[in-house]
Structure formats: C-alpha cells, structure tokens
Amino acid sequence: xxxxxxxxINKEVSHVQYNQMLSLVSxxxxxxxxxxxxxxxxLCALYGDILIRHLISANLRTKNDNISFLKNKYxxxxxxxxxxHFNLSHSGHWIIGAISNDVIGVDIEKMANIDLSIxxxxxxxxxxxxxxxxxxxxxxxxxxxxxxxxxxxxxxxGTGLSTPLDSFEFTIRSNDIxxxxxxxxxxxxxxxxxxxxxxxxxxxxxSAQFPETVTSIDIGWAGEQLLTASST
Length: 232
Known about the structure:
Blueprint: E1 2-8, H1 15-24, H2 27-35, H3 39-60, E2 69-71, E3 77-79, E4 85-91, E5 94-100, E6 104-110, H4 116-122, H5 125-133, H6 136-157, E7 169-173, E8 176-180, E9 189-192, E10 199-205, E11 215-216, H7 219-231
Parallel strand pairs: 1-11
Antiparallel strand pairs: 1-5, 2-3, 4-5, 6-10, 7-8, 9-10
C-alpha cells in the first residue's frame, strides 16, 4: 500500500476549522505554528501535520491522541511501534503527503529559472552533463527531475544532507530512472508523477507499486475527520 495525497494551502478554511486543527497537534507544533512570521509557513507546518495525522488515523483506525511521533538522529519523524511509514514535502502552494507500509521518500518542487552552477556544484558530473546535453526547452524540467529525485532518495534514507548530493547519481532516459549508489546493496524504486505542470514530484519507495495519481484532500475536511475519530 502506497498512497500519495495533496493539500492546496490556498484553499481557505474557516476560523473554527483552523482552531480545531491547532487543538489536534502537539504543544510543540502549536507553538511552532504560532511563532511563524509568514502565514504560508504556518499553514504548511499545521496542514502538513494534520494531513499525516489524518492518514495515520484512517489507516490504523486509531485516535489522534494515540499517535506518537519520534525522530531519528537526523531528524526524520517516524511512528512509535508501528510498521506504517510516511513522508511530507511542500513547495509553492502544495503540500504532498505519502503513506506506505514500506519506507518512503517524497519531494515536490516548483520549477523556476535554473542556475546551472547549482547543478555543477551539487550534482555529479554525469548528471550535470545530462542537463548540458539536453535541449534548451528540456533543461529546466531535467534539472528539477534530478533535484527532486535526489531529495526523495535522501528522505527515503532518512539521513538528510549528511549524505552528500554528489555521492549518488541518477540517469534519466525518457521514463526510465536508474540510480547508482556505491556501497548500497538495496536500490529502491523511483517514480515521477504528473501532478501540476509547474511542479516536479518524485517518489522513492522500496516497492515499485506506485499509484497512478495523486489524491487531493480538503484539509478542513481532514481535520474534521480527525476530530470525529478522536471523539468516538
């Protein structure tokens, strides 16, 4: 089971719904949300937490109060005493949440004008050459394909940037994605999903059984579902 969901932070929720959602997250998260200077950052932090809590509650049929998050030494959150895995990413006005029975990593990025010096500095030489050799009309798309694939893999590993971006490399040929990661005995599967033409969305998982689509969720509804599940 691998499912991917999207929340549009531009979709308004009522004042009541917002406060309900604040009541459903941890004290630490609530304080973090209230400290943010910019509304977008606050919404991403709150909505992302509610999305994952809703998905966990629905999949495990458990109350919100029973959901306990821990973090590994690199800061990646995980569930205590549960085989369910999850991951979050946000960019622009989208929050993406993935949930699976296996380890998962997901990354979304809004595409913009590219600076090839970034690719030269952080990507492998082979990846950099792939971008240079691409048609001008395809350079931006390829750059963000590689970038989000790398981020999804790091999030799958749960090591963050302690694993250098140029210590592994991707080769992309049409819809075929291959990873070279020296020293790794297990190579996960990757998929890039068509979601929004202005964004790139990459997923990394142990299993190659990816969903064909991304499911949109109204975050106000998700909060209400979580509240209802907690009161029954």
